[in-house]
Amino acid sequence: MDLPIGEEIARRRKHRGVTQQELAAFMNVSKASVSKWETGQTYPDITSLPLLAAYFDCSVDELLILDSQLSPKEIQRIYQLLKDAFQTKTPTEVLALAQSFTKRYYSCYPFLLQMGSFYLNHWDLLPDVPVEGVPKGQTYEDALMEAKKNTYLKEAETLYQRIMDQGDSELAQQAKQIDAYCLLMRNKPEEVLAILGTKTLSFLPSEPLIAAAFQQNNQLQQAEIVTQSAIYQYLIIFMSLLTNYLAMLTQDEEQLEKTYARGLALSESFQLAELHPLSLLNFLAAGMVSFAALGKESLLLQALTLYVKTLEATPEEIVLKGDDYFNSIDEWISELELGSQIPRNSGSVKKQFLAIAQLPPLFEPYQEKPPFKELFQRLSNLAEQVSNSQRSDSHE
C-alpha cells in the first residue's frame, strides 16, 4: 500500500520554511535522499521516523497520515473495494490487500468485525491452501474446499477473539455470535454451545422502549425509524429461523408443511421478494430440498416456481432498502456497518442460489419432467446470463 509520507514531509518542511538541505543536515542524510522522500521514490528508513516526527513536532502516525480509526463510510468503502477486487485481481492479490488493510487498522474494532465478515463470506474465493491428505470417501476438491474453509474461518475467528478481548461490550457481543457461526461452519458444535450456552434466554427488546421514549418526547419521526428498523430486522431474523426449522422437519411432514405455509404467508405479506429476496430464496431453497427428499412433488413445484421467479426478478446489484411500508429506514440502513451493500458480491450470491437449485441429486428425477424441465431451463439461462455479466465486468 502506497504511503503519502513524502507529500507530508514536503508540506511540513515548506510550512516551517526550511530547505531540503537544512532538513537533510538535521537527519544526517544527503539532500538527494530528502528529495527522493518527497517525490515518493523512496521512503525514510523506519528508524528515522521518530526523529522526523520530533523535528516536525508531530506523531509518527500523523507523519504517515495514518488514523488508526475509520468512519462507518470509510469501512463501507474499503469493504466494497475488497468485494470488487475479485473482478480484477487474483485471489492472492485480494488476500494481500485484505491483510494489508487489517494490519493498518488493527485497533479499529468495527473494521475488524467487518474484515471477519469478509473472510466468512469470501473464503471460497481466496487462494487455495495445502491439503494434508484426503479423507476416505472424499474427493480432492472437497478436501481442498474444507481446508480453505477452515483456514480462512480461523482467520475470522482470530479477529473476533481480538474484538471480544479488547472491544466494547456491544461489538464483543456481535463478535461472539459471528464467531459461533464460524465454529458451526467448521463443525465445532460443542464449542458453539460453550460460547452461547444451551438454552434460549428470555429477553426484552430495547427498541420498543427507545421508540416510546422518542414518542413521549414528541420526536415522532425518530420513533418511527426505530420501530420500522426493528420490525425489519426481526422479520429477517424470523425468516432465518423458519428456514433453519424447515431443514429439521423431514421426520415431521405435518409440521414441515405448516412451517412452509406460514413462512410463505409472512413472505407474501411483507413482499420479501422485492424487500429482501435473499431471505426468501434461502427459505424456498430449504423447502425445496425437504420436499424433494420426501417426494412431495406439488410442494416442490410450488417452491421451485417461486424460487425461479424471485431469482429472475432479483437485480444485478442487490442492495438493502426500504419499500412503501418500510418507508423510514433508508437513513438507518445507510448508517449500518456496511451500509446498503450485502456482505458478498451480488453476482456470486446469485451463482450460489443457482447452484443450489441445479446440483443436488435430489432434483435429478425432476430435471426432464414437465413442468419442472422448463423451470430448470430458465435457471440454466439465468446462470449463463450471470456468468456473461461477470466476464464482461472483469474485462472493463
From TrEMBL:
Presence of keyword Phosphoprotein: no
Keyword set includes Metal-binding: no
Organism, scientific name: Enterococcus entomosocium
The entry's keywords: DNA-binding
Classification via SMART domains: HTH_XRE
Domain HTH cro/C1-type: 9-63
Lineage of origin: Bacteria, Bacillati, Bacillota, Bacilli, Lactobacillales
PANTHER family: HTH-TYPE TRANSCRIPTIONAL REGULATOR XRE (PTHR46558:SF11), TRACRIPTIONAL REGULATORY PROTEIN-RELATED-RELATED (PTHR46558)
SUPFAM superfamilies in UniProt: lambda repressor-like DNA-binding domains
PROSITE patterns listed in its UniProt record: HTH_CROC1
Name the record gives this protein: Helix-turn-helix transcriptional regulator
